[in-house]
Amino acid sequence: xxxxxxxxxxxxxxxxxxxxxxxxxxxxxxxxxxxxxxxxxxxxxxxxxxxxxxxxxxxxxxxxxxxxxxxxxxxxxxxxxxxxxxxxxxxxxxxxxxxxxxxxxxxxxxxxxxxxxxxxxxxxxxxxxxxxxxxxxxxxxxxxxxxxxxxxxxxxxxxxxxxxxxxxxxxxxxxxxxxxxx
Length: 182
Fold this sequence. Notes:
It contains 4 helices and 10 strands. It has helices at 12-35, 49-56, 109-120, 178-181; strands spanning 5-10, 39-45, 64-65, 68-71, 85-86, 97-105, 125-134, 146-151, 156-157, 173-176.
């Protein structure tokens, strides 16, 4: 598996430091919603699993965790296929302030789809927190409230991000060798 890695883009220490900074800002920005019992943290599974777990443990707030699943990179694809599928949204969304936590902002389709669905389901507001924001032209422009790192155009894995379901367990964010992704 390690022979598939071309280079480490962001190491585990930098990730941990940045998550602490994001948590501090989230506490400042979301305390009122949490105090009112209206905060829902919605991790987008499975890519944001590690990021969300590390982030929410640093939030001394009251909130519900309501995971959702969204798929836009089927199989061994390294590019979004433009088709976004998501799980049905729970009734706990109505009137809530929702913080969507995702691994990467790439085409913008996933977050746009979630924002539309959540607002239609009755969310009071939707904010986005992504670990990575890829420097690419987006199919859908979307504002992201909280960003861990801006990265160049590259297919990355590790810390929850995968290629065909593999490499999620790597503790760093890495770029795969070209022969691996085709």
